[in-house]
Amino acid sequence: MRRLPLILIILGAVLAGGYWFARAQAENCRETEFWRCGAGMPTPRSEIQAAVADGRIYVAGGFAMGSRIVAAFEAYDPQTDSWERLAPLPRRIHHAALAALDGRVYLSGGYRGLNMSVGTTELAVFDPAENRWQALADMPAPRAAHVMVAHGDHLYVLGGITEDLASVWRYDPAGDSWEAGLPRMPTAREHLAAAVIDDDILVVGGRLHGNQATLEAFDTATGAWRSLPPMPTPRGGLTAVAVAGRLHVTGGEAFNPPQTFEEHEVFDPASGSWETLAPLPSARHGLASVALDGSFYVIGGATLPGAGTFASVTTTVHIFDPEE
Q1: Do 253 and 235 form a contact (C-beta atoms < 8 A)?
Q2: Of 62, 85, 96, 306, whose CA is between 20 and 30 Å from 144?
Q3: Is residue 16's pLDDT more than 50?
Q4: How far apart are the first and last CA of the chain?
Q5: Alpha carbons 70 and 89: distance in angstroms, whole number
Q6: Out of 2-16, 47-61, 104-118, 278-292, which region has the weakest mean confidence (pLDDT)?
Q7: Cα–Cα distance, 144 to 95 (Å, whole number)
Q8: Is the pTM of this model over 0.90?
């Protein structure tokens, strides 16, 4: 057997160590007084988003161990604390956006490869009743590391890496068509997070030439943007959802110095103020979250920032139950 170059031996050791590290993360999900654990995902991964349809949580694609890109599509049932593997995505993808509307799950954009230079324009929809994906009308331009949320009868796509980082698009499922002329975000950014409260889409954090703490609200009724008090901790690669009318934000990463975040910060639109709550038990980025039955579910992600992602992906599911 021919002797392997030293760099390959070192790389193999790093990836193997990362594999067992990720397994340990999944098998030893750490609970605290405020956070409990759910069953871990079948596929450890990062750079993902999640969506809820008919009481189940769906997670799509992402980076798996060793810079592997996956087409895995899995659903979590909180009632049975179990996961189910479903029909895989149409293609392997990461940094895509996921949202649910009228019982169906939509996947937009993302990167197919590791060079992360050009995102895709694709939009696809998953029908849980038929366990299959269907291609829909392409987005107006390629997009990745963006967010997609549902409000009313439409889907909204905001931010991300695209021709115009501040652009906002609206998708109409009834006509399978896109509208690209919506008012632009005041602050351009990618690796951001968003959630819907009443008629507002709250867009928080992200990065562009460094991490941001920006919080802005888009009024879907009037099309107007307004600035809100910034998040206490600037970060990109974070996740956010609305639980009981408040915005819960956690996770994220920074590069200077390199770190991942455990901070759990909550914005109350009624008071216009932020509050710091119990931190996430394991700091990580590229993670997903949803709100379901009044609880905050935080799923997957990687515990190491940047290139360390490929050796630190997790299956971890943490659940936070806000006090009444």
Answers
A1: yes
A2: 85
A3: no
A4: 64
A5: 9
A6: 2-16
A7: 6
A8: yes
